[in-house]
Amino acid sequence: MISIRLFMLLIKASLRSRMQYKFNFVFSTIMASFIQISEFLMVALVMMKFGNIKGWTLYEVGYLYGVIMISKAIYRTLASDVHHLEKYLVSGDLDAILIRPVPVLVALMTQNSRIQFAEIGQGLILLIISMNALQANGQIGWIAIPQTGFMILTGAVILFAIGLATAAAGFWLTRIEFLQNMTEDASHTAARYPLSIYPKWLQGALLVLVPVGFVNYIPTLYVLRHQGGVELLFGTLAVSLAVLGLAMYFWKLGLSRYQSTGS
């Protein structure tokens, strides 16, 4: 509980410092909005032309896209610099965090926090549009709303765990940008679309090695397509807790082996 209170206080302080540069905040939010919406519009144009992707409609893909967009935005808002651990390792700035009277991970997570309004807002818009259309077709009911909230929260935990485990690899590799390109950037992009469109080996990788498929695809099979039963939601929760536990263990192991740059 003490760590949670410290975390919230440090997050608020970091956000206040970011808001001092209002023009930069507004400009970066607008640019992020253009980038995110342009990516989905390209997919939407293709789907409007051909109708669906292996049986998945535009609104179903929009739902997948919205869920992972919000989950990722929550993760990056609450743990921004976990993704940027490499710069702390290379510059030696992690040494300054180590001597603070707070847990290292809490201190790192609250560095340079920024609420990703653009990503959260666009994800919500996509979800609202997609879910309204799916509800009008009788595919989902009101129960899909709390189920979607559950998916977003467990998805944020899974993405954080993947990011934390990748960052922890930096204690051995130092340079981890290439690894993050695979475990975070590429996998997040792949998970925006139904895993059924990929070959079997890639589906396995996205469910086992880098389990982003549990962020949206697996629970969506139950929420939208009523496949597999409610066990898919409980399974998603179990996976999120398991990967978080493994990531925390890997982080503590790596931190115990950290050696300062000596600068």
From TrEMBL:
The keyword Transport does not apply. The keyword Membrane applies. It holds the Pfam family ABC2_membrane_6. The chain crosses the membrane at residues 21-50, 56-75, 124-145, 151-173, 201-220, 232-251. InterPro entries: ABC-2_transporter-like. Keywords: Membrane, Transmembrane, Transmembrane helix. This is ABC-2 type transport system permease protein. The lineage of its organism: Bacteria, Bacillati, Bacillota, Bacilli, Bacillales.
